Amino acid sequence: MPSTAAEVPDVPEKSRRGPRWGIVAAVSGLVGILLAIIVPLLPVTQTTSTVSWPEAGTLEPVTAPLVAYYPLDLTVEVPCTAVGQLPDGREDGVLVSTAPREAGENAAARALMVSVAGPDVEVRSRNALVASAPTDAVAAPGACSTIRVTADSGSIGAEFVGLEIDGQGVGGRIDADLRPQVVGVFTDLEGAAPEGMAVDITVDSRYTTQATAIKQIAIVVGILAILVALVALHRLDLRDGRTARRILPPGWWKPRPLDLLVVATLLVWHVIGANTADDGYILTEARAAVSSGYMPEVFRYYGAPYAPFGMPYYLYTAMSAISLGSVWLRLPALLLGIASWILLSREVIPRLGIAARRAAAVRWSTAAVFLAFWLTYNNGLRPEPIIAFGVLATWVSLERALATGRLLPAATGFIIGGLTLSAAPTGTFCIAVIIAASRPLLLLVIRRAKRDGWVPTVAPLLAAGLGVLHLIFLDQPLVTTLQSSALLGDVGPSGSWYEEVWRYEWLMNPTPDGSLARRFGVLAMLLSLITCAAILFRKGRIPGVSVGPARRIVGLAAISIAFMALNPTKWTHHFGAFATIGAALAALVTMAVLPAATRSLRNRMLFLAGVLFVLALSFTSTNGWWYISIYGIPWGGTQPTIAGITLYSVFLGLMLVALLAALVLHYREPFMTRTGQERDGGDRGPLLRFAREVSHAPLGLAAALVVVVIVASMAAAVRNQYPAYSVGLQNLRALSGEPCGIADVVLAEPDANAGLLAPVGEPRDQLEAGGEAVVFDPDGIPTDLTATQAADTDTPGTGEGSDTTSTTAGTEGGVRIGEGINGSHAVLPFGLDPARVPVLGSHQSGAQFNAETTTDWYRLPEGAGENDRKREDPLVTIGVAGSFAPDAVLVEYSTGGGEFEVAGSVLPIDIGPAPSWRNLRVPTDTLPDDATAIRLVVRDLDPDPSRWIAFTPPRMPELVTMQQLVGDSRPVLPDWAVAFHTPCLRPFDEYAGVHELPEYRVLPDRGLAVSSTNTWQAWDGGGPIGFIELLLEGETVPTYLEHDWDRDWGSLVRYTPLVPEAREATVTHDEAVRSGLWNGGPLAR
């Protein structure tokens, strides 16, 4: 960027042992550069894994779900005599497969199957027929010895060894990568393993590596060399004859009123504020690193590491070993926020010039915009707080270098920039800092090189910038890291630079990704950037502002926006990296529109109109926040209004007034007398001076309004929700020693059968005993109950598409073999036992008739109406399915003893989705204290054949918390949106390429699940659902959010094995030394 000569002081020609320190700087710098380049190429020790079957001489199936899905290679040998050993003389069956046939079409489409299929013996991989032979010929004595199958990345082949037909051997080969997905080894054969039966699987464990001794030594020496080079560079800096400079300005530590306000706001927000979308994603990765030995992509990408980024996540790995509380884990974000404000107030604002140092409006406008950005985007575990701080620290370091003519600050900036770049792709903003300062920095380097020599000058700088490679490649080789990075791009989502518009489309959608708070920060930054760039381009300077730093801030912002387009993912949460850049621009634009800088009242009025337009556009969105952070939020799903008036319309009207005033001033200004300076009017006291300052900073006022709105909203959410769950209340609980999050307030039914209410005087198999059932029938239920009720379309997705009609496990209906207690063949949900639980439905084929029934009375437990009992048994629930009117099910209650009469009725709560099975809820505090029995009145009066209802008897569920049910030791798949809010649940482990099987899965609310977590974690993206659906069958456990009964908080799924007799495979581990250029082969997909 342009610079004046004064910004790069001349370098005096003084010796001061220059040659000696020059040699040290050159040698240590070159050593640091050389080792930083060599470290990625040095060898690592890989933990290899193999699986061999049968085990212990038996044909018991084993499970071994591979992290990468596909093995490096696989060999299968099946003796041909096994064809005739299928149990019960079956003519069809699986001899060997890498997924159980119980998984149905998914197993056939993904796994290897060596099977007898009637007249033929077939070898199929991913449904591709590799080879086949007539069953009779294979089974003929002496004709065939072995069925041998081999597969690797280049081909898959099968051979019926010894078998000839028409003088030709029998087999086949496909020259393509058709390696099957492996989740274990399974067979229909029974008993002892026949001689010659063997399956050998080489697991892809390329990421499970550790640094060898030589690599560790190289890293230590490399880091020491960089430190020595920095010391030498500092000694060369001192040749200018000046003393060493302070790192921070004098008195930086003394708090000021504005500092206290900013820090207090950050502290309050740390407790009550919303979390970011990926907190659970990152926390689960950090926890998984303990077992896997690297930072794996748990939820996608075949377990590949998040390399070369994600270095700071190891901090969360260490922190999670101390506590899993949200307040503790988010402490780095809080400290980075405070540190960023210190840099802004102590380093950035003073460097912008005398106007910035004198004008209070500049400081508080900077603070307001900083808070509006930081609170919205940077209150979690995502890397944006690191980027925001790192970019600002890099800028400050380079500005210090340019101001002092010394290179140690520049080298420090390169180190900070490198570390920041290792956090996330948006770390490229630090490169933007260097580009923006490149011209004056190059001039400084040239002048220093003329005095000290090129190598002593440049080598320490390059070594400092490359030093981060020691951390990135600490235990990963170069090629593997490159393969992982390429895999992430291939799997996607991955947008090109010209698709950056997607990010701004998300920002302008009325969802949490485009909420009023997210919009305001970005739009305010863009307004500031455009205004400052226009003034600098037109006038070349802003009065009272240092031109060099001002231009470099504008250049940094513009280049960073361009670099953002190179980021392959297009989520709006990446805008959090602009928090400090936006704040610095706010300081600059506030100085630019102060009366001392912009004397034209017309132009100031135009800027005011721009600020009001930003507010209007921001408030056209909702006050939305991610997932459970939105609980209890005012205007959480609507445009903010007061007394029925939308706030955006108020701001829009004020904008039109400002534009009209600017138009009037445009024609009036030529006739106005320019005094050169606004009349002060004397000292009228601090309040009037403050009011005048405020009026000169409309952007600061707008930002302060947004900060007040979002902080007040979160405080109101705690009050609105109490005693129900809210983020703020949970954080307060965590501070008092209850860190388990929503798992402590979600109530679950371990056994849905245990809460069944007993009918009065009638057998348990009768639902219609109290009245005539018209049309209702035990089999009046469709076989497919997949939800047709679309999920919440306001829920932001992952860009992977969404299945808005998906259904939680076990609620999709079906037909069972055998009759239930009242003759029904319907598959019941939630683990309800058909031998105990009757069911009736009104679904009809052909002509439609009204369906009505009134059940017998069901006795409530004694004392159910008492307050203590209501707390212990807070709900009555009814399992229902179908699409029906809100008043189709009515719960009537009686307060009588022997003779029951209707004393009143209650409409139960239905949270959907229809027509899947779900639980209607009747809070017991809606029943009178003396209620003794209830009954159901069910009516289906809709002639539409798609409108029907099915129901089971009422229950008073026996409830425990989800944390009590699942515990902290069982392996769980917490979907990434939920994981941060259920920290005491243990995510399933992985090691050396093999997964542990989860026993439970926790999903978010249906809107988020169908739009994001289901698709993100699915088979086609290399997620855990891809192996779970081949091995496990899920059933939804009924759950309810305590004191918030009509809330769809999410769901809990309990897994059972598809093959109960399958046990965990024995995995054999070994070690192999791999060079940094070792290629483990292509990654199958």
UniProtKB/TrEMBL annotation:
Record-linked InterPro entries: Arabino_trans_C, Arabino_trans_C_2, Arabino_trans_central, Arabino_trans_N, EmbABC_dom1
Pfam families: Arabino_trans_C, Arabino_trans_N, Arabinose_trans
GO biological process, one term: Actinobacterium-type cell wall biogenesis
Single annotated GO MF: arabinosyltransferase activity
Domain Arabinosyltransferas concanavalin like: 45-206
Family assignment from sequence similarity: Belongs to the emb family.
Name of the protein in question: Arabinosyltransferase domain-containing protein
Organism in which the protein naturally occurs: Dietzia maris
